[in-house]
Amino acid sequence: MTQTLLLLPGDGIGPEVIAQVRRVAQVVTPDLALDERDFGGISYDRHGVPITDEAIATAQASDAVLMGAVGGPQWAGVERSKRPEMGLLGLRKAMDVFANLRPALCFDALADASSLKRELVAGLDIMFVRELTGGVYFGQPRFIETLADGQRRGVDTQVYTTSEIERVSRVAFELARGRGNKVHSLEKSNVMETGLLWREVVTDLHRREYADVTLEHMLADNAAMQLVRQPTQFDVILTDNLFGDVLSDEAAQLTGSLGMLPSAALGAPGKPGLYEPIHGSAPDIAGQGVANPLAAILSFEMALRWSLGRAETADRVKAAVEAALAAGARTRDLGGSLSTAQMGDAVLGALQGPSRAG
Ligand code: IPM
Ligand code: MG
């Protein structure tokens, strides 16, 4: 049966980087059907909503979904429920992709591009497992109200249930077994009820099913500090939606370039995953053809591995990216001068044979 990958190029540099994924896919997976829909601001402009019901249904029926990026200053004034970012949250919820895998990997060729010293980041390989469909991002009630005295009051709700914590923790423990066998679970159990519950549920699950994995609990603020003090102490980091959002950006910067990092959002086994480069829409460089397409290409690589059952092809793509970097291919964010398409050329060249890399 033909597999389908739904592409959601989105806004900003999204279409530019997804165009390079298309080129790679045509070479390594000519049998894969590529579908495409509007997403984010462009969808709002064309259809009045950041994602249409039809696009959501198509995503749910695909084998995997790969997005570019959403958002930009031109949609800042749009009513909140129709903002590009709300399309992304809606898609995550509709696809029920509760486990967000965000590798923070320091490519050896790029260790000098980190804002930390090379010796602190060399060999860095952290896997963030961020809970993605719960917590304060979705908790009810949420509103802004005007009080009798004329003040305004904003309310968000952080909420987690046992099963929400358990299912994402399971993903973290399973992943750890295939890596360094260590999980750091982060929360603020010293001040938050959800943090306390998080710690208890993770401890319990660990004792019942994953006692062979090393588990350490760490307060999220301490983890933020440890990430810049000694980042290589971490293997798998398990945390909630908001802490995961913040700390995965911090970790991304440690690796030398945000333009390099892919991510995968996974749901129940057999359901399509949602893949995205974590760099966002980068409106400052959009349309210039200078964005680094490697995070998008590596997100495609994750889709091959985690949703499409094509681990060998994924290995090939990953090796080609590494070969292109080793041969000196650099976009502007990496201190080089290659255009987006030229970086695509470098990866395609490496795919066709190491002698032609770069
Ligand atoms: C991310 C982004 C999103 C988030 C935004 C665009 C809604 O920052 O994927 O990390 O906060 O989850
Ligand atoms: Mg973020």
Low-confidence stretches: none
Give Rg in angstroms: 20 Å
Q: What class would the helix/strand composition place it in? A: alpha/beta
CATH hierarchy class name of the largest domain: Alpha Beta
The tally of structural domains comes to 2
- Count of DSSP helices? 12
Binned strand content: 15-25%
Number of strands: 12
Indicate the mean pLDDT: 95
Listed once per kind, the bound small molecules are: 3-isopropylmalic acid, magnesium ion
Order of helices and strands: EHEHHEHEHEEEHEHEHEHEEHHH
The span between the termini is: 35 Å
CATH fold-level label of the largest domain: Isopropylmalate Dehydrogenase
Tell me the CATH architecture of the largest domain.
3-Layer(aba) Sandwich
CATH homologous superfamily descriptor of the largest domain: Isopropylmalate Dehydrogenase
Order of strands in the sheet with the most strands? 2-1-3-12-11-4-5-10-8-9
Major sheet description: 10 strands, mixed
Structure description:
The chain is α/β, with parallel strands linked by helices and 358 residues long. The chain is 41% helix and 17% strand. The chain contains 12 helices and 12 strands. It has helices at residues 14-28, 41-47, 53-61, 84-95, 118-121, 162-177, 193-209, 220-229, 241-254, 294-306, 311-326, 340-352; strands at 4-10, 33-36, 64-69, 99-105, 125-131, 143-146, 152-155, 182-187, 214-219, 236-239, 264-266, 273-275. It has a 10-stranded mixed β-sheet, with helices on both faces. Helix 1 (14-28) packs across helix 10 and helix 6 packs across helix 7 (193-209). The two termini are 35 Å apart. Bound molecules: 3-isopropylmalic acid (IPM) and magnesium ion. The site of magnesium ion has 2 residues, from helix 9. 3-isopropylmalic acid binds next to helix 4.
